[in-house]
Write a structure and sequence with these properties.
single chain; alpha+beta; Glutaredoxin; Glutathione S-transferase Yfyf (Class Pi), Chain A, domain 2; 2 domains; four-stranded mixed β-sheet; 8 helices; 50% helix; binds glutathione
Length: 202
């Protein structure tokens, strides 16, 4: 049985969604962000030194990092969600699994933190903005005609890119990146996505 350590309003929703899509039984341990700081509670630090979510317990191991968790769960329970090794699609899969956290999240987080500096952060904003445009633009342009990344149906990369795509929409960028907006609308209409939202509610 998989146990998910789930923090509200977080990347952990990716894992809930994946588990609901696959339809395997799992447990959820809920953690609430601090209402003032928005940070994770110290209980997560007792589980792993980084104290972040998602984390899963699976086959006697604790696993961190959403891309690693998605990859491992798909490999074991939904191999059709990962392209076959040796294909071009698999190379694209690897690139985008890493892009989702390693590249797309960088300008998003910089934007969040530099905003808090007020006027002092002004010299940094043009570069951050340019990077946001470039990353969102890339995510917008590479969606396939079938409405998914990489494969003709839902894959591990769709799960990973859902998080930065949703942030783009929260930043009101639907008009600038209409294909990304359609992607987000499509995933929000999936029954498994909505079951995940219900399961994640505290
Ligand atoms: N790269 C990690 C990032 C994990 C991460 O930063 N999680 C956030 C939630 S979206 C978190 O736990 N934040 C709470 C905190 O830092 O206190 C992953 O993809 O799992």
């Amino acid at each position: 049985m998989i146990t998910l350590h789930h923090l509200n309003r977080s990347r952990s929703h990716r894992i809930l969604w994946l588990l609901e899509e696959i339809g395997i039984p799992y447990d959820v341990k809920h953690y609430a962000r601090d209402v003032k700081t928005n940070l994770a509670p110290p209980e997560l630090l007792a589980i792993h030194p980084l104290g972040k979510s998602p984390m899963v317990e699976m086959e006697g191991r604790l696993i961190t990092e959403s891309a690693a968790i998605v990859e491992l769960i798909c490999a074991k329970h939904a191999p059709q969600m990962i392209p076959k090794i040796g294909t071009d699609a698999h190379i694209q899969h690897l690139e985008l699994m890493h892009f989702a956290e390693g590249s797309a999240m960088t300008p998003i987080l910089l934007n969040l933190y530099v905003d808090r500096l007020g006027d002092a952060g002004a010299p940094l904003h043009p570069r951050i903005q340019q990077q946001l445009e470039s990353h969102y633009g890339y995510m917008n342009d590479i969606i396939g005609t079938h409405g998914h990344y990489v494969l003709n149906e839902l894959s591990a990369v769709d799960i990973m890119l859902s998080f930065p795509a949703e942030i783009a929409m929260m930043q009101s960028r639907a008009k600038d990146f209409p294909r990304l907006a359609e992607f987000v609308n499509r995933i929000h209409a999936r029954p498994a996505y909505n079951r995940a939202t219900e399961r994640g509610a505290i």
